[in-house]
Specification:
With about 600 residues, the chain is an alpha+beta fold. It is elongated and about 130 Å long. The longest helix has 30 residues. Helix 14 runs antiparallel to helix 19 and helix 16 crosses helix 17. Strands 2, 3, 4, 5, 10, 18 and 19 form a seven-stranded mixed β-sheet that branches. A five-stranded antiparallel β-sheet has the order 12-11-23-22-21, with helices on both faces. Among the domains are: about 120 residues, Alpha-Beta Complex (Penicillin-binding protein 2a (Domain 2)), CATH 3.90.1310.10; about 270 residues, 3-Layer(aba) Sandwich (Beta-lactamase), CATH 3.40.710. Strand 21 and strand 22 form a beta hairpin. This is Stage V sporulation protein D.
């Protein structure tokens, strides 16, 4: 039996539903008509106004205005490092070629005011026709761009478009290699080594920016955020003393040669460094040139180096050995051993000692520099004759506690705090009293079995001859703004009192005797009294027979104004123990420095 399917009844719209539907459709239609009307209104009647408003909010061009890195000056205002402004000629071929009239005006102006070749310029524009930024000429000086810039800024040249001069600065070092390791150089706008690195944040500034955009009148307008230039650093370096030291080293290296030689010149009364010269100087304007390596390596050695080895070699050349290298100071340390005994009352100044040529320390026989012995000598002669035997006897009287106390009192084993990068740490190279053996005490007393750097030794030596005041060494004395106005002065930093003035006065006289009748006779000057101490340190391994020789001198004795420290590592020609060479070098630098500083001649010669 078939079932009938029931059909669903179709719901028909009642009157109320019809009214709502018609109302909704009508409302949508009205909205559509209003929207279409507004679009027509904006596109036809308000098109110009809104186009201007939109365009005025869009940056048309943005150019960096570089800051000028601060200068580095010597103490007398002479320029050691500066930044020269250069220009790049940037063309916008797409804009220049947009009309024949614009192209003609731009090409005509560039050929007239910059002397550019017309055919070459047109060819370049066509080859780069779709470019909005093309550097056409680089590293132009102001004189090369001045006429064109002046023309573009005049009424006649105001319609020149598509030509921009981007600015940049190039670091220059007028004296090329002078004080290279003190100054350092700039790489990627950041300092590498020396003052450039240590004072990088001071020398650096903040870039500015030039914004070119279209205003509401669709005219080109410019907004500039000025750059903030870096500060100028006035160093303690005296260019003339630096030149003297470098020339004297160069003459020595040419005649004798060495593994490395250095000169440090300081003001003992405030810690200022007048000069730091090294045989491994380099051209600051071309620091990566392999010719720089010739100051330390032979051509045959350089040719065999891998790229990695060359990088390491360059780093060795760039670092400052006066600050970063350590060595056993040798006999230049003997005055400190004597100073400790005088300061503690262990020595009175009238002692005598018997030198038979050696001291027997347990199973170790440690010889004097004068193997046959000095015989009976005074306390002052223990320094002037550089007697190891007498100095070992003094150290034994002091004992390990007193000796190590004064080593640290003079800051050996500690950083000096000099404002240069890469200062060597020597805290692990110094014995403590509890770990010092008798043989260590004996050898340390005359400057062996521990290491120091040149800046450590010279800073300590300054306190020894200035009345006992230990000043923090420094190479910067003042900061200025880019207009030359003084921002701040670097005042001398007195760290501690190492010894009394009485002890200092005694040591000065002992070291004056060293120059007048002892191992430093070659340091004598006609117009000034000079004091100092020679040093000979046998390098490790002792069996190699290699030596570091040195001389630390000062003048005038009655009122020291300069301390000059000369160190030579392994003299190549003649005896490596020839301390006389260091004395002669120091003498010349002392004399030249005193004259440069206009120090009055000594009256009690």
């Amino acid at each position: 039996m078939r079932r009938r399917r029931r059909r669903k009844k179709i719901k028909r719209l009642n009157h109320a539903m019809k009214v709502r539907t018609i109302g909704t459709i009508t409302f949508i239609a009205i909205l559509f008509i209003i929207l279409a009307g507004r679009l027509v209104y904006f596109s036809v009647f308000k098109n110009g106004i809104y186009e201007k408003q939109v365009l005025s909010q869009q940056n048309y061009n943005s150019v960096t205005i570089p800051y000028k890195r601060g200068d580095i000056l010597d103490r007398n205002g002479n320029t050691l490092a500066t930044s020269k402004k250069l220009y790049n000629l940037v063309l916008e071929p797409k804009n220049i070629l947009r009309t024949a009239d614009v192209r003609k005006k731009v090409v005509s102006a560039l050929t007239k005011y910059m002397g550019l070749d017309k055919d070459a310029l047109l060819s370049y524009l066509k080859e780069n026709k779709d470019s909005y930024y093309s550097v056409y000429k680089e590293d132009l000086t102001y004189s090369q761009v001045a006429d064109m810039k002046e023309y573009m800024e005049s009424d006649a040249g105001e319609d020149i478009s598509g030509v921009v001069f981007s600015e940049k600065y190039q670091r220059e070092y007028p004296n090329k290699s002078l004080a290279s390791q003190v100054i350092g150089f700039v790489s990627d706008n950041s300092g590498t080594g020396g003052i450039e690195q240590y004072y990088n944040s001071t020398l650096s500034g903040v870039d500015g920016r030039r914004y070119t955009y279209l205003n509401e009148e669709l005219e080109s307008d410019t907004s500039i955020v000025d750059p903030q230039n870096g500060k100028t650093v006035v160093s303690t370096i005296d260019s003339n003393i630096q030149k003297l030291a470098e020339q004297r080293l160069a003459a020595f290296e040419k005649e004798y040669g060495s593994k490395g030689s250095s000169i440090l010149v300081m003001n003992p009364n405030n810690g200022e460094v007048y000069a730091m010269a090294s045989s491994t100087s380099f051209n600051l304007e071309d620091p990566r040139n392999e010719k720089n390596l010739l100051t330390k390596y032979k051509k045959s050695e350089i040719d065999k180096m891998s790229e990695k080895e060359k990088v390491e070699a360059f780093n060795e050349i760039w670092k400052n050995p006066i600050v970063s290298n350590t060595f056993e100071p040798g006999s230049t340390f003997k005055p400190f051993t004597v100073a400790a005994g005088l300061e503690e009352g262990i020595l009175k100044g009238d002692e005598t000692f018997i030198c038979n040529g050696y001291e027997q320390i347990g199973s170790n026989r440690i010889h004097c520099s004068h193997r046959s012995g000095h015989g009976r000598i005074t306390l002052s002669e223990s320094i002037s004759l550089s007697c190891n035997d007498a100095i070992m006897q003094i150290a034994a009287k002091e004992g390990k506690d007193v000796f190590t106390k004064y080593q640290r009192e003079f800051n050996f084993g500690s950083l000096t705090g000099i404002d240069l990068p890469g200062e060597a740490k020597t805290d692990t190279l110094l014995h403590t009293a509890d770990k010092m053996e008798d043989v260590d005490l004996a050898t340390s007393s005359f400057g062996q079995s521990f290491n120091c750097s040149m800046i450590q030794m010279a800073s300590a030596f300054c306190s020894l001859v200035n009345g006992g005041s230990y000043y923090e060494p420094h190479v910067v004395r003042q900061l200025q703004n880019d207009k030359g106005s003084v921002i701040s002065n670097v005042e001398p930093a007195l760290v501690k009192q190492t010894v009394s003035r009485d002890t200092s006065d005694k040591l000065k006289e002992y070291m004056r005797e060293t120059v007048e009748s002892g191992t430093g006779k070659k340091a004598q000057l006609d117009d000034y009294t000079v004091g100092g101490k020679t040093g000979t340190a046998e390098k490790i391994p002792r069996s190699a027979g290699t030596y570091v020789v040195s001389f630390c001198g000062f003048a005038p004795v009655e009122d020291p104004q300069v301390v000059v420290y000369v160190v030579i590592d392994e003299i190549q020609k003649g005896s490596q123990q020839n301390t006389g060479l260091t004395v002669e070098i120091a003498r010349d630098v002392i004399e030249g420095s005193l004259k440069e500083l206009k120090v009055a001649k000594s009256t009690n010669q």
